[in-house]
Amino acid sequence: MILNKSDTRRKPKDQTFWVFFPAASLLAALAVPLSVWAVWSGTGWPAGLLGTGHGHELIFGFALAVIAGYTLGPQPASVVYPLFGLWLAARLSWFFWPDSLLAQTLSPAFTLLLAWHVVPRFNAAKKWRNKMVGPLILVLCLLAAMFGLAEALGPFNTSWLPGHLQLMHSAIAGLLLLMTFMGGRVIAPAVAGTLEKKGIPLEARVQPRIEGALIVTLGCTVFLTAFPAANPVAGSLLVIASGLITLRTLRWKLWLCPERPDLLVLGLGYVWLAVGALLTGAALLLGKTPAPALHVITIGALGVLSTSIMLRLAWQRGHRTPPTTTDIALIATLLSGAAISRLVAGSAPFSSPALLWLSAGLWALAYFWVFIRLQTLRKYAKKRQK
Length: 386
Description:
The chain is mostly helical. The protein has one domain (14-150, 162-385): Cytochrome c oxidase-like, subunit I domain (Cytochrome C Oxidase, Chain A, Up-down Bundle), CATH 1.20.210. It is built from 14 helices and 2 strands, in the order H-E-H-H-E-H-H-H-H-H-H-H-H-H-H-H.
């Protein structure tokens, strides 16, 4: 076989998650306690984490970095590092100068460049349920750009023109849908394979009818949560989605996999999706602020599922085994405690500073641990490649 010069000069591709996962973990560990400090200390520093700023960084900074690491796969350095550099510049500018033109430009620029790289990867899907991933990621990226525009419009926002807070709620609903879909695609085959080795057939795997119903219900919710007038409808759809997520989880029979704690923790993250959807839906139906319930989604579900996925990929690449029980049990416990503490702190969390600091501290400890483990696993993976 004769290789031409272009073949011999090809540079190896880098696993994108080795770059984005540690950075996302470090951002998560720092942003939450710093956001509490910015208000509690009275200094207002860092300015970018005040008010909805911390939500912006955790959704459009942290969550999109995890999505980048998970969906891009192996990429040449010419793709990975410019994209990561733009992400880092966007985070630093938003942290310290959130109202500057630089921050308002770099953050949307990263999300749009990410969409340009990621969305086409899902165009080859044949089933409509699989095709929705690309457009959903595109919507999340566009919401990041719209967030800055909504902040700039400020007093011109009306009931028919969503404000930045409503757009953030839509983004969280979009993450809820994305986690529901992708979490199911990870859990279902893993549970089925585990049970088959034990001679137990699992008929309910992906469960396409339930998955399709979830895509429709939560897809509508992404749009409706941007408009306060539609809260009763959005709330009803979230309650229905919670029931569907619960039913899907039960049909996986995760209790038959006690030897796979990594799957049990993924199941716990999926249960947090159901709890978060139920509480958020109930809050919207009752006309209450959904903030505490939304934190159940962003802390409980996003926290447990993102850490599980990050460690799962890193352990498979480094050791070709699932994560250790110590890793995932410790992190799941810390994040579940953080979610419960923030929920109990309620809609006025700074009136319960002990609970708020406890939640922030547990969250930060979990992600610092993930950051350290990812660094260790990356070094081991590099040694194996030599």
